[in-house]
Task: structure prediction
Amino acid sequence: MPKSLPPSQLIPRLLAGDRLALSRAISRVEDGGDNARELLAGVFPHTGRGHLIGITGAPGTGKSTLVTGLVQAYRAAGLTVAVLAVDPTSPFTGGALLGDRVRMSKLSGDAGVFVRSMATRGSLGGLAGATADALLLLDAAGYERILIETVGVGQAEVEIAGTAHTTVVVEAPGLGDEVQAIKAGVLEIADIFVVNKADRPGVERTVGALELMLHMADGTPRQLFHHGQLLEVAAAPLEDESDGWQVQVFKTVAASGGGIPEVMAEIERHRLWLAENGRLAARERLRMARSVEQIVQAELLRRLRAALPADSLAELVEEVAARSLDPYAAAEQILDRMG
Ligand SMILES: Nc1nc2c(ncn2[C@@H]2O[C@H](COP(=O)(O)OP(=O)(O)O)[C@@H](O)[C@H]2O)c(=O)[nH]1
Ligand SMILES: [Mg+2]
Result:
């Protein structure tokens, strides 16, 4: 397949399940290249079928191992699976950690599995934008379950996981006394908690801490959107999302596959619950609102940078720092020049 295949030819191949076409398409949206937009416009009508499952948690909790186990479980159940590993902390080009590569190679050779890593590259909409675009491509290619592994440390990563249909937050014992979820602010986005490395000491303590936390948070609405965001607020009906879904804590030993069928069953139970309660549509609306908003933000920023040369920005900053201009006045000047 020639590298320069135009979108008009790449799109039908991708939709027909051609893995090479899918791979090429993801690279193009990642690079934010010329015909990325045309590509996305072409596949968009064919999206909205795959179930998106976010897997997030601190580094080393066993997310990649868990993902590998879940893929095997889903394959055994006859479903096709795609994995998108989003790890900007990875020192390797392309974002794949060596251990991940070894683990994921267990899955290679199966036409029903597609694995891809993403790193923070210079895409227009940043990591979140590039990830959202890649997810659309995987969805259009027909994968029935799409697992997104993100390191739950940065806001962008937590947001990516939080926009999945089902979000699994992974903890492990012995990562310090405090449960990591509290620090990262992922409590609000968890549909399912997994305490992995249940073969390690301290597992009951971690489970207990999580259960206590869930008990204390009982009745507080799930935080679906961030205040102050324009489109998200418009998209999210102010319903109590925690109503009717009980977040539970599961123990796994991902390294040996222990507990993984139960986690898969819970993900599926959540999927059905979303569909039966109209929540799937609500989450879709929110995801779309986020996506549009992200694009608007990126484009505004691009126009701003184009309208204002770096040195004129530096001048303004200098004036504010010297207290000869207040921050609001500076912002107004910038917006005025944008036209
Ligand atoms: N003891 C134990 N180690 C595990 C388990 N699951 C994963 N690991 C190990 O923990 C390390 C980190 O796992 P990895 O899946 O890369 O974590 P990630 O950074 O969250 O993706 C690896 O050395 C795994 O082999 C488990 O259930 N028990
Ligand atoms: Mg990993």
